Every structure is written in C-alpha cells, then in structure tokens.
Amino acid sequence: MDLWFTPSENSQVHLESLSFEGFVEFDIATKTQIKQGQWGDYVRGAKYALSKQFNLKYGINGVLQGSLPVGGISSSAAVLIAYVMAFAKANGISLKPFEVVLIASEAEREYIGLNNGLLDQACIALGQKNSLLFLRL
After folding, report:
1. Active-site residue, selected from the candidate residues 2, 27, 41, 120
2. For residue 6, how many other CB atoms are within 10 A of its CB?
3. Which residues make Cβ contacts (< 8 Å) with residue 97, sequence separation at least 6?
4. Is 41 known to be catalytic?
5. How are beta strands 12-17 and 60-65 bridged, if at all?
6. Which pTM was predicted?
7. In order of start, what are the domains of the chain with their CATH numbers?
8. What is the dihedral angle through the alpha carbons of 83, 2, 121, 131, rounded to the nearest 10 degrees?
9. Which E.C. number(s) belong to this protein (predicted)?
10. 30-44: b (≥16 Cβ within 10 Å) or e
11. CA atoms of 77 and 45, how far apart (whole Å)
12. What is the per-residue pLDDT across 80-125, written as a single tens digit (0 to 9) for each?
C-alpha cells in the first residue's frame, strides 16, 4: 500500500486513488464523519480514531495506490496504518509503532465495523524482514 501525501495548509482532506474510482474530500474539523460505504471510509476511520486522543488541525492531500489484493489479508489494516501515520505526520504527532497499531485497530473496529484483533496491524507496523514477530498482550 502506497500513500503519497502532503500536509494541507488547513483542515481539509483531499485524496484520490489509483486503485478505486472517485476521490475523498472532508474537513477534519467536522466532529462526526458519516460513513459512505466506499474506500474513503478508511481515511475517515483513521481521523476518527486519532482525533479521540489528539487535536487534529491539518488535513492531508494525497494519492493512494494499493498493491495488496482488495479484500485480501491486511489490506484494510495496511491502509489504516498509512492514514494514521499520515495524519500524525501532518499534525506533528509523534507515535510509537504500537500506538499506531492500537489506533488503526480501533478505527477498524469502532468506525469500519470489523471485528478483528491486532495481528495484521502489528505485523505491518512492527514486522521486520526475515524475522518472526511475537506479541504478548
């Protein structure tokens, strides 16, 4: 999953996808983000979960390209990790890798509505090439 972005100079989010039709635009200052049943719900979910802990002032402008199969293992976790990290970077928020895991997982459970654990997010954020990842929760 590749996300190329720049922080916006205001609270606006504007994203396009090379893998999905349409674009996503919203203002992060709006408290409630309404799910629309499309790929933009994942960026709204990342904003939802991150804004529960931090005051977000700046949105992002970007382009998303998916290299994972749609509906494949970790595709939703990968894109949420990318969005959480992008919003954090745009707003000067420093997160430890496991904090990113927890925020992305919360977005997936509470906003997207998927009932899953932390393994996909942890493998993406904490995994290293040619190694095993052991989680003790």
Report:
1. 120
2. 11
3. 125, 126
4. no
5. parallel
6. 0.89
7. 2-126 (3.30.230.10)
8. -150
9. 2.7.1.6
10. eeebeeeeebbbbbb
11. 11
12. 999 999 999 999 999 999 999 999 999 999 999 988 878 778 777 7
